[in-house]
């Protein structure tokens, strides 16, 4: 039997080598941010702002026009909630439809 102090440590050396390579790769990608240009992203921000209908709408505290609360709640209950509770119709598969034709 080989004594512990003379046994080669290949597994720990391999692990250390892999961790060292991973650390070097991580450090290689951690450089400073590149400065692209001063107007980078302006086109995106301009296009986004062009879609706003009323830019000063956030300062207007009046409520939006629409359905009164009771009517909106009734529509919600009758159409949306009931549609979730209904069982969907089971459509026959294509093979079942062919069998019905015979």
Concise description?
With 102 residues, the protein is mainly α. Helices cover 52% and strands 0% of the residues.
The first-to-last residue Cα distance is 81 Å
Unreliable stretches covering 5 or more consecutive residues: none
- The beta-strand count equals 0
The helix fraction, in percent, is 40-55%
The share of residues in extended strands comes to under 5%
Written as H for each helix and E for each strand, in order along the chain, the element string is HHHH
C-alpha geometry: flat
Number of helices: 4
Report the major sheet: none
Write a concise keyword list for the protein shown above.
flat; mainly alpha; 102 residues; 4 helices
Question: What does this 3D model show about the protein?
Answer:
The longest helix has 19 residues, at 10-28. The chain has helices at 10-28, 42-50, 69-85, 94-101. It contains 4 helices and no strands. By secondary structure, the chain is mainly α. Helices cover 52% and strands 0% of the residues. The N and C termini lie far apart (81 Å). It is flat, with a radius of gyration of 34 Å.
What is this structure's SSE topology?
Elements: H1 10-28, H2 42-50, H3 69-85, H4 94-101
